[in-house]
């Protein structure tokens, strides 16, 4: 599995940061996510001035605070920020990770992660990502496994992954959701036991790896046995599994494998085509060698 | 003979023939023929049987005029022959093929007995009148069209047909012409279906010693004909053209031995000359020729037919023909006719030509032809000024010309052509001089959090905030002034976001609904949808481009000042010129405009972004002393005053903030100085050109060019002809000949002299044939070049006289623009400059409040079009509000901020402003609705006509309580909408430009 070097670096630094903060006593109180009632979350009103905060350097523009105009467009900015995040995820081609924003809200993404080797081999873990609605200026997104996997960093009750240890402070422009997903994948390959959300798992891993392993195998089995369950959240775009049914899946599989050739054919059909007679490497118009001008 | 065709009893006969056995038919046929032969031989002086050696000697033209030859043929005998022949032809037509494609017995008999040829000779022997020709043509038309077996493979049938055809050339009677073209068309159809006959057509005509490919030559005179005849001829020619793509021989013949291409191209010139030189403009908002407009103008319809034909020929013909035609269009129409027309003396004429050019560009679709038009616009220089620069400078003219020019650029930008965008904008952005060095990486940065969109929308004037709008207008969606696409389909997955917006929070479980409590501007969704459409189609189109234009490719370092002046360009142009048949080569102008050489060089930055308006960069305070004596000038003519007013306005608008020019007087002074300097220059030029020549090399160039330009241009038609002659002997290098001395030119001309003579002859016959109406002979064709010389002089004079107290003449207005010389290639790149086009757009944009609604619609439309381009250089320049530009570079955002400021001031000073805004919104709403309705009934318009949809000259709703003169109010509404449009484009870019197309 190829780890993205960029990310692993940033993960390391953030971990370092965290320990630095701890030393200086500024570590945020780590509340157990289990106590966070997602369901009853009160949506804070969109701030009056929803203009994303820009770099302090860019001043001079008359910023109209308390102008209703901005607030009206706030949701659009949020929506597009999330869409941009989503396209970034697509671009990363994270191995074994699939996500899909929910139908009802771009702030909630459904995902599934396939573990292909290591202790958690053959694990298929469904999860949900919750993004704060003041994204990207709020806290880091939460990632909650549908079934609490047996893992030192996964809360055994709520199933929430301890994401914050990797992203102590969510920094816009630096942190992206794909990094959270990547992090969720990494924990299954590289076990970290410091400050666990599941102390039992941590202790076992340190003291009795064999027992830990067997617990993990049980946990993987449990998760996989619930694979075909109805999605926990009722949403048209929720990820659901069903046994292989040739009538349904064969055709889809076929399409997935033939998809690659399609885009080209597609835009051959549509007659939107630009023109260029510029020779590559030149900035002169009509610099292409003679011969039939082509479109 | 073919009267049965006219009588229309053919069908009855064929019914009778059904079921009759072939042998009986054969016997009947032979009997008839025996009877005919009896009569034929009775009148044949030679009494020869089937062989007719005399035939090839017969002088056809004598036959048609000479009347009876061997004594009169009695009428009863003639009609007897005719009756027999009618029956025989039916039998022949109805005969089926023999076994395995062999000839049927009747056909075999016809071939063996040489029936058709003998019949043709028989008709020659009688009086060969037009009526006779008509009959024979109809006979063959029927045979060719309806025979069940292929007939044309057989020489004894083909030969008399060809003789008949050649006897019909130069015929005068329109019915004969119509029938001839119909038959030719049919022959071409047969050829297209069965190219194997082609060889026979060539051979047959060789026997005759006439032109090689008769049916083709006969069609040429009808190329530009109106109506059905012309259409049929063009269709037939197109069939031959597509044949030429596969058949080298046809291609070679057409390109080398016929006048097809010159006739086509010069025909365009001829047709162009009959177009109205001044258009009746229906109303102030009119800005381009729509189909409804040109359908009312027969001459324009005819021109477009021919242009469309050229387009079709280029599409299907062999590359040789295509290249030749394209070259003739360039050198025979664009350069000698359209270029001078674009530089006519009155505003109306120039405006009309511009509208024509726009229409032509919209009518042409073949890349090769588009390339011809575009290279004319981008590279051709008229009076040392690139056509493009002239066109750009006209955007700023205050009259209809400015509006029409804007529409032209909307068309140009909508072509997604790299070369156009390169010349207009990108070349100025490539060096990245317009931004701070540290900012280069920002160019490619992605605006993940819609920061730019937010900043753009934050410019919304407070009076236009959606919260202030009255309930019915809160959604504002109908004011959407662009595209008018359907509202996002609520089932489409594209609109996931829209739904999540509109949906109230369901309060259940973990779902997080965004913004449920906030009023949302629904129209913004439409803008997003439109932005998505336009950006994705633009991205698709630009895949053929050569570079990414992202600040790295092409590398900015490579195109730093000085290097941009690519030495390869000249040779490039030469190559282009060579490719397109000799044309006078003009030495490239120096990078420095001549005026600045004899005046103290000045930092051009102060006024750099709107100096495209003026002829030359405006000077700063240090005035040249020698200009003093000329002041104070006599009251300048009105157009100068007008210019000043605009200039002052521009300067005021843009520089108040910088505090660089605090009072109008100073600016006025500047303009005046510039004017006086012009005068002085003109004086200098007219008085002592020689001294100047020796002193400043660069100043001499344009003058000399002006002369050397006009001379060869007047020779142009001949030159191109000579080239067609010499071309047969291989591509010549007439180019250099032309450039240097006339002796070689004449030599070259002599080379092709006889072909030239033939050509002239042809044109002349065409002229008479076409009713003497459509075609100009060479002499006339030269005409456009002559006024050119005069115009040149006149301009010189005009500059000089422009200060004498005179009655204001609007036509003189064009001279300052025509002499606009800070040309695209000319400007030194050391001063950050984003190009004259951007400058002029932004300066007009800055004047939004005083622009008419229609101008603003066009302006915002063009800017939105530009913003949809995915190239990071362009995108970051227009949309990235974080990018830090050089202090002298004006950004769109700055301009928008200025406009907002103006609006806020205006709104604060007027109590009734909100009401007026509401009225304007209602008015625009009603207008939009009426267009939507019209659109639904009518067909969709071209892709790049978004704003045009609003501007079409269809009835507009009656303004309620607000006059269109309140440009400030309308501009305010439009401004607000434009902000949304741009913000939506910025937002969509943050998504679309980063999705890899392949996946």
UniProtKB/TrEMBL annotation, chain A:
Keyword line: Apoptosis, Cell membrane, Cytoplasm, Membrane, Protein transport, Transport
SMART domains: UBCc
GO BP terms, alphabetized: apoptotic process; protein transport
Membrane topology value: Peripheral membrane protein
A GO cellular-component term linked to this record: plasma membrane
Entry keyword Isomerase: no
Region span, Disordered: 1-66, 261-295
Domain UBC core positions: 77-225
Pfam families assigned to the protein according to its UniProt record, in alphabetical order: UQ_con
Protein name: AKT-interacting protein
Lineage of the organism: Eukaryota, Metazoa, Chordata, Craniata, Vertebrata
TrEMBL record, chain B:
Record-stated family: Belongs to the FHIP family.
Record region (Disordered): 484-507, 683-740, 770-818, 935-959
Organism: Collichthys lucidus
Pfam families: DUF5917, KELAA, RAI16-like
Domain FHF complex subunit HOOK-interacting protein C-terminal: 834-925
Superkingdom of origin: Eukaryota
Biased composition (Polar residues): 707-726
Biased composition annotated in UniProt, kind: Acidic residues: 789-799
Protein name: Protein FAM160A1
PANTHER family xref list: FHF COMPLEX SUBUNIT HOOK-INTERACTING PROTEIN 1A, RAI16 PROTEIN-RELATED
């Amino acid at each position: 599995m190829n780890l993205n070097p960029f990310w692993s670096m940033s993960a390391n630094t953030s971990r370092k940061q965290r320990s630095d903060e701890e030393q200086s006593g500024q570590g945020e109180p780590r509340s157990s996510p289990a106590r966070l009632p997602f369901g009853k979350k009160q949506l804070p009103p969109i701030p009056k001035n929803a203009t994303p905060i820009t770099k302090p350097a860019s001043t001079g523009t008359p910023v109209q605070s308390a102008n209703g105009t901005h607030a009206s467009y706030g949701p659009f900015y949020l929506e597009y920020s999330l869409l941009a995040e989503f396209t970034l995820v697509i671009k990363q081609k994270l191995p074994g990770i699939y996500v899909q924003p929910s139908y009802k809200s771009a702030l909630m993404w459904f995902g599934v992660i396939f573990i292909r080797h290591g202790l958690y081999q053959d694990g298929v873990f469904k999860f949900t990502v919750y993004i704060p609605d003041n994204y990207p200026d709020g806290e880091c997104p939460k990632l909650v496994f549908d079934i609490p996997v047996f893992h030192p960093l996964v809360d055994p009750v709520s199933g929430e992954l301890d994401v914050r240890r990797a992203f102590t402070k969510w920094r816009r422009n630096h942190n992206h959701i794909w990094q959270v997903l990547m992090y969720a994948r990494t924990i299954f390959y590289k076990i970290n036991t410091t400050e666990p959300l599941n102390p039992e798992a941590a202790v076992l891993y340190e003291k009795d790896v064999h027992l830990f392993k067997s617990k993990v195998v049980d946990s993987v089995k449990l998760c996989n046995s619930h694979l075909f369950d109805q999605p926990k959240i009722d949403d048209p775009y929720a990820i659901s599994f069903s046994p292989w049914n040739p009538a349904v899946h064969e055709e889809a599989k076929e399409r997935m494998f033939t998809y690659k050739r399609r885009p080209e054919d597609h835009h051959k059909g549509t007659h939107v085509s630009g023109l260029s007679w510029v020779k590559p490497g030149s900035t002169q118009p009509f610099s292409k060698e003679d011969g039939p001008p082509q479109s | 003979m073919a009267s049965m065709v006219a009588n229309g009893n053919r069908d009855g006969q064929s019914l009778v023939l059904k079921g009759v056995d072939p042998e009986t038919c054969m016997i009947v046929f032979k009997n008839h023929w025996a009877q005919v032969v009896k009569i034929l031989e009775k009148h044949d002086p030679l009494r020869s049987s089937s062989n007719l050696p005399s035939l090839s000697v017969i002088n056809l033209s004598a036959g048609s005029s000479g009347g009876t030859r061997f004594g009169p043929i009695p009428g009863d005998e003639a009609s007897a022959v005719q009756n027999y022949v009618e029956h025989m032809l039916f039998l022949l037509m109805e005969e089926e093929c023999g076994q395995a494609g062999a000839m049927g017995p009747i056909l075999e008999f016809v071939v063996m007995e040489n029936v058709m040829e003998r019949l043709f000779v028989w008709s020659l022997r009688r009086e060969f009148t037009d009526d006779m020709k008509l009959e024979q043509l109809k006979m063959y038309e029927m045979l060719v069209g309806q025979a069940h077996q292929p007939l044309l493979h057989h020489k004894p049938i083909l030969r008399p047909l060809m003789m008949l055809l050649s006897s019909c050339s130069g015929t005068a009677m329109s019915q004969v012409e119509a029938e001839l073209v119909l038959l030719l068309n049919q022959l071409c159809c047969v050829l297209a279906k069965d190219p194997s006959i082609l060889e026979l057509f060539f051979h047959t005509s060789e026997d005759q010693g006439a032109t090689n490919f008769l049916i083709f030559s006969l069609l040429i005179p009808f190329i530009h004909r109106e109506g059905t005849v012309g259409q049929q001829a063009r269709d037939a020619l197109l069939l031959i053209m597509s044949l030429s793509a596969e058949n080298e021989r046809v291609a070679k013949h057409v390109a080398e031995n016929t006048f097809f291409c010159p006739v086509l191209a010069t025909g365009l010139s001829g047709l162009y000359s009959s177009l109205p030189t001044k258009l009746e403009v229906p109303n102030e908002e009119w800005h381009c020729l729509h189909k409804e407009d040109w359908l009312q103008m027969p001459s324009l319809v005819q021109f477009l037919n021919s242009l469309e034909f050229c387009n079709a020929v280029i599409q299907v013909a062999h590359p040789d023909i295509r290249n030749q035609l394209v070259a003739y269009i360039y050198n025979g129409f664009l350069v000698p006719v359209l270029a001078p027309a674009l530089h006519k003396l009155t505003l109306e004429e120039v405006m009309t030509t511009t509208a024509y050019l726009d229409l032509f560009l919209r009518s042409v679709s073949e890349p090769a032809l588009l390339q011809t038009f575009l290279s004319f616009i981008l590279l051709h220089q008229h009076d040392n000024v690139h056509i493009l620069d002239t066109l750009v400078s006209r955007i700023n003219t205050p009259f209809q010309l400015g509006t029409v020019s804007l529409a032209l650029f909307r068309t140009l930008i909508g072509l997604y052509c790299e070369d156009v965008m390169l010349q207009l904008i990108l070349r100025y952005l490539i060096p990245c001089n317009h931004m701070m060095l540290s900012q280069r990486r920002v160019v490619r940065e992605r605006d993940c959090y819609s920061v730019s969109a937010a900043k753009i929308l934050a410019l919304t004037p407070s009076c236009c905030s959606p919260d202030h709008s009255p309930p019915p207008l809160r959604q504002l969606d109908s004011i959407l002034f662009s595209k008018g696409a359907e509202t996002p389909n609520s089932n489409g997955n594209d609109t996931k976001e829209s739904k999540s917006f509109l949906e109230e929070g369901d309060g259940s479980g973990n779902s997080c609904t965004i913004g449920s409590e906030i009023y949302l501007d629904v129209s913004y969704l439409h803008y997003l949808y439109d932005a998505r459409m336009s950006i994705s189609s633009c991205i698709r189109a630009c895949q053929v481009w050569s570079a990414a234009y992202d600040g790295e490719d092409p590398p900015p370092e490579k195109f730093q000042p000085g290097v941009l002046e690519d030495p390869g360009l000249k040779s490039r142009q030469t190559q282009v010129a060579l490719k397109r048949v000799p044309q006078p080569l003009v030495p490239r102008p120096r990078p420095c405009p001549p005026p600045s050489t004899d005046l103290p060089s000045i930092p051009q930055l102060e006024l750099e972004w709107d100096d495209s308006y003026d002829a030359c960069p405006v000077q700063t305070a240090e005035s040249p002393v020698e200009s003093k004596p000329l002041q104070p000038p006599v009251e300048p003519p009105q157009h100068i005053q007008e210019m000043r007013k605009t200039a002052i306005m521009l300067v005021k608008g843009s520089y108040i903030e910088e505090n660089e020019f605090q009072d109008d007087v100073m600016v006025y002074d500047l303009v005046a100085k510039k004017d006086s300097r012009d005068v002085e220059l003109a004086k200098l030029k007219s008085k002592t050109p020689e001294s100047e020549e020796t002193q400043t090399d660069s100043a001499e160039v344009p003058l000399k060019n002006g002369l050397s330009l006009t001379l060869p241009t007047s020779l142009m038609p001949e030159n191109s002809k000579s080239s067609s002659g010499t071309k047969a002997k291989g591509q010549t290098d007439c180019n250099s000949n032309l450039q240097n001395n006339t002796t070689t030119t004449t030599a070259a001309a002599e080379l092709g002299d006889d072909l030239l003579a033939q050509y002239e002859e042809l044109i002349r016959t065409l002229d008479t044939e076409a009713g003497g109406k459509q075609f100009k002979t060479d002499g006339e064709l030269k005409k456009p070049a002559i006024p050119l010389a005069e115009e040149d002089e006149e301009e010189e004079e005009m500059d000089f006289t422009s200060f004498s107290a005179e009655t204001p003449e609007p036509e003189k207005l064009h001279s300052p623009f025509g002499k606009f010389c800070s040309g695209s290639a000319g400007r030194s790149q050391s001063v950050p400059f984003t190009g004259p086009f951007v400058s002029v757009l932004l300066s007009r944009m800055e004047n939004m409040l005083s622009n008419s609604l229609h101008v603003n619609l066009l302006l915002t439309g063009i800017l939105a079009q530009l913003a949809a381009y995915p190239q990071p250089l362009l995108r970051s320049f227009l949309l990235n509000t974080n990018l830090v530009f050089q202090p002298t570079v004006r950004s769109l955002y700055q301009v928008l901020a200025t406009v907002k400021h103006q609006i806020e001031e205006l709104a604060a000073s007027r109590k009734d402003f909100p009401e007026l805004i509401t009225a304007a919104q209602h008015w625009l709403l009603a207008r939009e609705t009426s267009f939507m309705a019209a659109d639904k009934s009518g067909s969709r318009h071209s892709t790049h006509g978004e704003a045009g949809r609003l501007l079409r000259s269809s009835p507009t709703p009656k303004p309620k309580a607000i006059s269109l003169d309140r440009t400030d109010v309308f501009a305010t509404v439009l401004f607000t909408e434009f902000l949304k449009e741009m913000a939506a484009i910025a937002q969509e870019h943050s998504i679309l430009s980063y999705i890899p197309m392949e996946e």
